[in-house]
Amino acid sequence: MDVSSSVDADEDMLQRGGLAAALIAPDVQAAFFASPDPVALFVFEWSGRYNQQDLIDWTLISGPADLLGVAETIATSKRSHNDFPTAMGHALGHAATRLRDAPACLFHTIDMAGDGENNDGFGPADAYAAFPLDHVTVNGLVINAAEFEAETELIPFYRDQVIKGPGAFIEITNGFTDYEAAMRRKLIRELSAQIIGQTHMPPDPNG
Hints:
The protein is an alpha/beta fold.
């Protein structure tokens, strides 16, 4: 979650509440448990180059109670910083580092959610060159606060510089009030893609 200085207190509450509500929405829960293999979640907030705060350590989501516990922790969490810039490359580096501690998984996905372009430290391209992210998919949640979508450069920035990997995509929110709905769409799309990937079988060369 983006807690850079461009995110005010009300927006931060919408972001935390939106993520928590999305995780326990019935359609999202159905997507989590559609596969027999559990999903592992790790959640952190980020802003400046040295400002990443872990909120949820790696947690296996084996049932609804696990999702509820994660959602409650996020909803009641307190913001760690509010006066630092947007160090997106450093956030990706932190995610890459913590992926080393992740449970064994078929897929590794990073969700990069934010309302601004990188303006501190190295950017996404440098992070992808420096950290072991070759087999990681990075999807983007663009918090588009502009009055008209065409007036912001954030969408092409995420499309051209942030997302990476097979099937990577961006989801766009219409400001922070739309955060929950956009996060629900994003989670369902990610989880559905993993189920398809698990069940896909290569063609039989013998016909």
